[in-house]
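Q: Got a minute? One more chain.
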Amino acid sequence: MSCLPPPGPGDRKKAVGRVNLENVAVVLAQPQIPENIGSAARAAHNMGIGRLVVVDPKNCDLSRIVKTATGTSIDLVERMEVYEDLKEALGPFQYVAGTTARIGSLRPALTTPRRLAMDLISISRENLVALLFGPEDRGLSNEQLRYCHTITHIPTADFRSLNLAQAVMILCYEIFLASADPPQPPSPRLANKFELEGMYEHLKTVLTRIGFLDPQNPEHWMLNIRRFLSRVPLRAREVRVIRGICRQMDWYARQLEKKKRDQASPPSDPAMRT
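A: Always. Here it is, folded:
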């Protein structure tokens, strides 16, 4: 539930351009310390975000979580969703923004919290958005980051490490403040992660079949393909188009394989037919 004040007559136009907080969730992947879950819940609740998802927590002791959640943010803890698998937890979301303190060629920081917040103004109107945070000791892995449409990095001075709740607060704060004037048009329904992961698996299978991907290490090139296709969030209709292309490529490859087998098989002896 959003904690934005109801817009007055002069604010109605501006309010239309705000992020739809009801469609935004904080997702904590493999948190290790219960108190950090509570602090993250409090930070999210302070900024009007009313959905918390926890994935494969090392310790989910509610008595310790509520100690740092405090106040009405305990309600958010009581409603939090707990999953064992990250892919399943992200399935319903159409847009996933990951966070990382480590940057480099394999994990480029594609945006900042402020730019991400502005992008979410239009995306969040019709789409569910997940803000994904990794475990306290190591952050999100490269494998976990592959589920993300974009990756954001919180700039710091010499010491890069932030407490989990601090990172949640900074990102949620920027999203809470984000507004646009004039308002941006809403984005259409984007493909959710179930649809996207099905598409990527389909692409990997077909591209391996036609020899584009090395069957010994297909994920290396698939990471580049994921980054390329994540530059612009794909609509559900566009995912269906890509999968249709994959089906046609697969059919054509199978026809070629069948033709090669037929040409390689020796001609039958007419005498054997009698």
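A: The chain has two domains: 9-177, 193-264.
Q: Perfect, thanks.
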